[in-house]
Write a structure and sequence with these properties.
49% helix, single chain, alpha+beta
Length: 95
Amino acid sequence: MHNGFMSLSDVFNNDPALAMVRKIVKESDVALDFAKIFPDLEKVAVAVKVENKVLILRVEISAWRNELKFKENVMVEKINSYFKETRINRVRFVF
């Protein structure tokens, strides 16, 4: 018998009115956990944000930017594997 009460987790995960909030939280998780996923890149690249499944990375040194561009597919796969769902489709590099 349902008593009308739901856990906050159930409300957050299932309420259609919170779909945009869920999207924002998922996108910010990628930027926040970037250093955990790629600890060796912590001094080279900074995750700025995610927009429409595009991770925006700030990379100051052009040589690193070129190197990371070649590894973009591996990075996308590793991030999506970490979260066990498709969170990003590509990476964009900015100065």
